[in-house]
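Exercise 7. Predict the joint structure of the components listed below.
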Amino acid sequence: MSDLIEMLTLPFLACMLMGGILSYLGIHVLKREVIFIDIAVAQVVAIGALAAHLLFDVEEGSLISYLFSLACVLAIAGFYSVARHKISEISVEAVIGISYAITAAGALFLMGIAPGHSHAQEMLAGALLWIMWPQVLTALIVFAGVSVVLWLCRKSLSAVSQDYAEAARRGINVVWWDFLFYALLGVVITVAVRISGVVTVFALLIIPATTSALFATGWLHRMLLAWLIVVIASTSGLLFSYYLDFSVGPAIALCLGVLLAVTAAIVRLRPKSGPSRHPASLTTEGLDSERS
Amino acid sequence: MTEAMRLFALQITLIAVVLVLHTYLGLHIIRRTLIFSDLVLDQLAAFGGLVGVGLGVAYASPGSYVFAFAAVLLGAFLLAVINPRNPAIPREAVIGILFAMALVLSLLWTDKIPGGEAYIETTMSGYLLWVTWPLIRITLVTYVALILFHYVLRHRFIALAERPGEQKHERLWDFLFFTTQGIITVLIVPIAGVLLAYSFLMIPAAIATLFTKRWGLATFIGWSVGFVACLLGLGSSYAWNLPYGPTLVLYMGLFFVGAMVLRAVLRSRKKESVVKGELCPTS
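Solution:
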């Protein structure tokens, strides 16, 4: 038992930190319909680290590597915010999708030039189990800083996330707030992906926010629900991976997915009394026809 | 003809045919914002292949295709059937979660098979350089059949994008749409890898959508630009011995960024001329 606590305490703390901020950002991400932003930004972060490795022969996790990744994140944040403003023919999610393909190809291309620097599995699955105190403290400081900015700018950021066109009509500088949002999200993702890999970060960003939408609409309620989900899924994911010897990150992501599927099914199948208070249920053709 | 020339001709033919269907399907995906549906199917095809590997079936062997196709059919079913009614949950979120689950299952599965990490990388990058004639023939015949199928039933599929909610049995047509995507995924992922397959689908279609809403014209523009970009990528890859798939994707990406800049410039010029017209209505 003490082995278990010793081994899983830091990963659990890291999950709480990441889940805390990512599930809030996830609500913004769902409202903006930029679902795959994490995967695209994570690729950009990887490009920065690879470029730093090629140019200065520095390892991932060094200051120069972080700075390169950060520069790439700011560049892509600028690209998304300007693209959203200038291009109306295709959705920003399409731009994100294509930027993902290009940056992932760029990463593979750089890996082709610099063989021996290929860690696809590690980048995807992460190494959450081997996290150390300095990484947890770095995450704490960075996430606290980002949270303060998010709190101070919450009104403008929420307005842009809620309705971009309306915000622009009201005279809000949408390009700037978009840039700030993507930059902050990028900083969080840079730190989080180093800790736990792309898949877990993606799951923590999207799934708690989606599950919370099944039960609540207000920001506060959704955040509280999302945090509860993070606690349950992280605990069960860590135990699952500990006892069955699986990678920690993907195990947590799997638990988040299972939790969503179960709650969505419960919400959907629950007998309704009077008008639905939860329009959030996921619908399926089969279930619809059953009802009719 | 030398072996290298034969291989080059084979790859060009494959790309030319593949791009027609991918561009057309990509137009649907972009209009309906199902951007990452293809990655779900790609990842499921890869997962199916990996399950096969775990059970002793070699990756990209005929047996492996059966596993991949079964996984993809399940994906097409889930994509068609799960449609959130709540405006707070966009359909793309469901797609994202399905993708995450497919990727997670692949990673957890490779935890338990020897050399799993290498397979994850193979599924990402593909091995287009090793394609063989029988595989190409099967791929080409299937693609031509699917192009005909989509041409004959184009009104049904276009209605999904242009008049959502109006057509009868919409989820059936959705299922057929995703199944088409699934079939081409099963064929193309072992050859081209997840990234190149996804780029074939998204980038030419996105470039075309920037300039026109007409389906036929957009397919033509997307195919032309995509084909030129792939030719350049293929040439560069041979000339400088660059990694194959990534080079093609990067060339297509270059054209996409160029198209976005062109679109933005055209838009600002149009705005300027409108303003000028308003200021001097007689001129």
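Discussion. Confidence is low (pLDDT under 50) at residues 274-292 of chain A.
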